[in-house]
Amino acid sequence: xxxxxxxxxxxxxLMLFPxxxxxxxxxxxxxxxxxxxxxxVKDPRYFSKSFRRMVETSLKxxxxxxxxxxxxxxxxxxxxxxxxxxxxxxDSIVLAMNAPLDAPAGCKFSKEIYAAYDVRIGxxxxxRALAGLNDVTLASxxxxxxxVDAESALDxxxxxxxxxxxxxxxxxxxxxSCSFQRLYAPEIxxxxxxxxxxxxxxxxxxxxxxxxxxxxxMDRVPSSETITGSVIADDSLVLDENCVIHGSVHAGKRLHIxxxxxISGNVIxxxxxxxxxxxxxxxxxxxxGCILVGYQCRIGSEGRIKSIVARKHVSLTEExxxxxxVGTEARGSIIDKDExxxxxxxxx
Amino acid sequence: MVTIMKTYFxxxxxxxxxxxxxxxxxxxxxxxxxxxxxxxxxxxxxxxxISVLLPMHNEGKVIPLIFKSLLECEYDPDKLEIxxxxxxxxDATGEIIDHYAKAYPxxxxxxxxxxxxxxxxxxxxxxxxxxASGEIFVVFDADYRPSKNLLKKLVSAFCxxxxxxxxxxxxxxxxxxNLLTNLLNLERTGGYQVDQQARYNLNLxxxxxxxxxxxxxxxxxxxxxxxxxILAEDTELTYRLALEGWRVAYDNSAECYEEAPETWDAxxxxxxxxxxxxxxxxxxxxxxxxxxxxxxxxxxxxAVLLLMVYTVPFLLGLAxxxxxxxxxxxxxxxxxxxxxxxFVGAFNAWGNFAPFYEIAAGALLDGMKNEILALPxxxxxxxxxxxxxxxxxxxxxxxxxxxxxxxxxxxxxYAESDPDKIAxxxxxxxxx
Lengths: 348, 432
Known about the structure:
heterodimer, A: 32-stranded mixed beta sheet, flat, B: alpha/beta, eight-stranded mixed beta sheet, 8 strands, globular
């Protein structure tokens, strides 16, 4: 009996110990709920808007000062009274308030630039971030550490590195060999030509039909076939040439959209997405893998915002047009036709 | 008899080992594997019209908070309506709803006051859905506080045509109140940050939890809405849609505060109700899940394990008694041989390491430091849950055998409508 009593006491103590330990440990420290940023709102131009707000508030509160009061005090350089020489080094925040800003080739700006008028940045310049309240033009090889934004049009020369985000209020044109992480503009033109051959809106409208929520399971849509409903594949899916889908598309693995296809809805894949030339997609394109967009493609339509989002690499080929947003957790790049065929070969 | 007892004991050890492996796989996946992204990063100017459904019974204490949060949400007002259902409330719920509806036209009141009407969440939701005009229905309980971008995040999931239902993450707002709310905070962290996200990553079956979630109108309406005779309408919807080939999405960033129960009595009732409802779904869907042609083997296997989560604690309790009986009968000769390894593994699986893996992994991902100190006390709540879940299982069995009507039992609320309480709480967390 004594043995059983001792056994019971030991077992009970062993069970009670962790409870008491937990109870007293928690009492020693104040517990707080996990923080949810309740006011957080998504905005693809957030960096620029936030910076502009801080600058404008500081200028209003402390007019005439040569220091800008942001999260810490920053030295100011008024570009209107300054001529930049090639390969110059600037370590202050640059404000161009009364005239266009011209930065010659090779300049290094280790802080942000705020420009109220047009901005032209020379070749191979290095800039932390740039907020332009009008048009911004970048020559070749310009490198951004953080972001660049233009209130109107952003024109990006070849081989630029665009940091985390490049955005524009109206139009963004981006040239070959540029790398990026996020692009945003109501109209994004890839390459030098705006792509006369890109499926025109009129043509698109003709193809546009009644979208349907019906799910159709198949792993290949034959060429020139028209389907009303969303096409679903548990594994890989191929949409052959010139097929028309009045609905969305989902592939459980990789998705191959061949030339001339038209999709009125969204295109989603749990793997990679390859979009060949002259394809028109009116909805969003989303992949857990890579996305490769061929030349003369049209994603989205005028006046509406749509997205291309991938967890891995996004490659966009010249002569395509996108209405809205491009984002990747890896890197994005602009390629030409030859590179597109090479990438297509290695992808599939 | 002894052979049966020994066989049962060994079977339960194996069952617990399976659950333990599942917990380890999920924890490993969250900590070390590549994570799936959700559609929340999509910017789309053509989001669909949505109806937010708020079923409420005696929620006068908390209604202003949820209305305030929803009215501040970032969503095109022309594509948003809020249907507030007053389900036989005896407090000021009806008056408060009418007051807000007068001030804000997007709030549409629906009063269910006929004493002959059945009451409860599924019935209230069905009535709300019958008048709702949105393509997507978003459901919140009255004690939830959605953040500004929550609606957009949830609705973005429907860009994928195969997604039928989406679930967001629940975070207790009153975590510091007492030991119980501390423990619930840890459970939620393990359950959402690790378990739900891992299931989403691995293409298994994340669970729609009945609140902070959304689903397509047409999928519900074609079957006549929610089953009004079931308590766990959320679990039933998860399995119904999964077996039809629809996907359940989970968005870990679609976070929403909830008020966790603050008394053991309220928590016990809540768990018993969940167990009752979940087991009703288990009786109905276990066979169908095993026979499903839509689910792959691994999806089916995990779906069955998920269906059994409110059955296993009772079976485990029996295994404890079985173990004690075998010990006193002198038949517990498992120390010798390979069974010992299983025994040790299973001991660690029940009540000890299994939930610890996920909670510890979740706490690490969430950056919790102080909160994790309460972890050892989970040992107590394990037995507390086993007790209440077992009663819930008996309730479900009796429901099935007698075909009796199921009455809805509401969880008690604690907060008064004081938005500053949350603001202060958030402020402290931000400072931290």
